[in-house]
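Appendix C: a fully annotated inverse folding record. The material below is reproduced so that readers can follow the format used throughout the book. The structure is listed first as tokens, followed by the designed sequence.
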């Protein structure tokens, strides 16, 4: 999954596209925490710009399980 995400970032950078925010949208609490910390590590290593905000939650509320 991380390889896919990093590939997406490289594609966007090469084509002039850019994200201002990253939202993690999964109901798996452990998976979400792991991905959050992985993205923070990727930012420290320079794969993700420092000014891109990483949110450890989804944009919308989960309609199946509530918030």
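Designed amino acids, in order:
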């Amino acid at each position: 999954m991380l390889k896919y995400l990093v590939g997406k970032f490289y594609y966007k950078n090469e084509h002039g596209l850019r994200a201002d925010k990253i939202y993690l949208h999964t109901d798996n609490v452990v998976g979400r925490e792991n991905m959050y910390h992985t993205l923070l590590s990727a930012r420290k290593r320079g794969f993700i710009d420092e000014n891109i905000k990483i949110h450890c939650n989804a944009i919308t509320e989960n309609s199946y399980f509530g918030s």
